[in-house]
């Protein structure tokens, strides 16, 4: 037996402990065990739970083997062991598992022996565990996939929820926390093991103590107003306090208690108002001084608080788009009314009663708690008018003007990007409708005719309702009718988008401003739930007309839309949320139901977006993904053409006979070749087809519709002689097998041309589409990382998130690094001075690729060296014996159309003409060439002829792919460094790049040697 072979030991169990990392190196490399644990039985009494575990040790027996630990197998889940040493008493890692003992200490130490970091301490043991897992991944490169929990009392694994374990039912599973760490807070008993943790804790103290001193008035955005004198913050606060001092709030006789308030109402009829108690105001007082509740009749009217502004226009019957102007055109005169100073007094978090509308909230509370239903509902009806008035006053709305006035909606330019983006943020439905459909049409039909027409349409009709009751679902739980909480209403309110207001003139933003915590609205909605009815004011709405299609003088082509009170819509929205949850949980709706569900179905129509990059031809460097709807249309046209040009005379005769019958039935005309051609192309005369409807669909009706969508055309010279024109190509009976391929390719090329013609997104595509190597990675992903893949598509479409690429944002477009006027993709990748070093690295990487690709009969005369007295340094000068010298200069311009590449090539030829003249003295043939690779990986087709002169021909295809991928990779790093300040996983990226370079170097050398040998 070999004496050097390790012998089995019968020694006490030795565990590697995190605490052993604090020993000297000499001790850690000694042969003695670090910690020897005696075997002992579990504690017999509960008093031992408060005692911390013994010195830290690992989860299982381990041994030191060249700095690595080898773990034995631990007992399975739920099993017990009589060996306490096999149970961890400190956090221990075994491969990718983290083992934790319980009861656990709040501070966890790193299980790696060589780690000297401080213990991880947080408010809970789970947070400490997450910090430890993050530390292992960041500092040691170890990913923890699962966590095992052990009980040191019964020696078995615990379930995923430690508190469910039997040992911890009556005892804590976390040891007492002792705040004795190094960095202590001076305001509380918190302590931290790091200075950063203490800094974050102190910042939280400051955020809690910071409270706003004043709520500033909203800023008006009227373009036509005169510029105001700038005020300081102190002047603004003084003006706001003066505004409140000038407001008159009537005092209330404090002798009238809450219980007597409804007694006063009982002595009056429903239609009789209640006079407030007489009082003599003692001068202006601040509203905060009056905590006594004010009856609805004592709340001041809006004309007592605000001066009467210019009357607001009030349109009659119009379209919804025109009515939206009342809310959306904040830049015009209507904004003068909306931007009145807010009358909400400054709020304070210290006083819970310091609520601007506290009096109304108290009144609603009394109504809700009153048991006299008739009396309470009458008071609620009166209070609702005061609530609407208070909300309108808070929003700065003027008093309602009943006098009609002319209203002319403002025109919105749909081609103005900034205007459309601003409109989209306020009302995205109107913005999309304006882009897709254009400006709306107003209804000029007299109101009397409109009223008579829709009264007849919506007249009450009797029908048998028993049919609906027979299909009503049974055996389902009741719908939730519990009182609404303010949080539930606030969540629903923030999901609403602003739209045209109703008779109350309030928007959702006004509700958020007046009642941010939704206390008042929660009380109102709960009163409606209790009485199972709504206020009378909510039952009135304002109707507008929307033109759908056809003649504008025909009322059947107009659809009425009701604009209801905003608070009523919020109330129904809250009920709808509960009803939808009930329907979804109980599977009430059919699976075929698609509309009116809680997600966007056809509102954001993706087909209306620009999808040329997705569907364009791969020959142009685009994705070339088939479009399903387009594929179906192609099959329809192909099927019709093949039937009419069938090689079987019987099938061809049947097809033509069926087509002639269908044309005659559809048009009512004799099916001549001209009529057949017009029918198949979808061309109608001024009167249209004589019979505008058809009871059934045929192959020819499908082919006609598909023809219009695909943009192809039919040519019928005579019966049994027909052609299909796809672009400039005419397909006859001989080309019947090429129909699908020809139409698909024509459509994909059309997609590509449409994208190239776009001024911004088509600039880089114009260059990358000229050589297939520029997009070699789309199908195979060769030499391209996932990060590069995600970057290059956005970059080529000019969609990178840069300051200069966000025209919808009103913020500054300056460069964040060099303060250039515009931070665009061109500037970041080719012009920004702080990125010069990485641009040089990108350039040199391509130079090295070109140099390694040369054949052995070419020698490097100079590389980046000065030749002559002109201080010019070409990248490479290659020579082939005495006869020939080749001056190569590699440039990486940005793909701003192909003209940028041509300008760069001409500039290189002009720049190095003097060096060519100098080398002409020693060489018979001297030429200057430029190899151009775009910053986004576009390969110039003119480079191919240059490479064939000196590079190995078998290696050129791979060289092109490598140069393209290198340019994309380095440009992505430039962008990340520019935006983030660092490159994620830069060390790993460099290691992969070095491995790739070595592998490709060996392959290129083998190819060159093989070519020379052959």
From TrEMBL:
It comes from the Eukaryota. SMART domains: ZnF_C2H2. This is C2H2-type domain-containing protein. Residues 1-87, 266-355 are annotated as: Disordered. Residues 108-140, 183-205 form the C2H2-type domain. Residues 321-332 have a biased composition (Basic and acidic residues). It comes from Oedothorax gibbosus. PANTHER family: REVERSE TRANSCRIPTASES. Residues 16-31 have a biased composition (Low complexity). Residues 1-15, 43-53 have a biased composition (Polar residues).
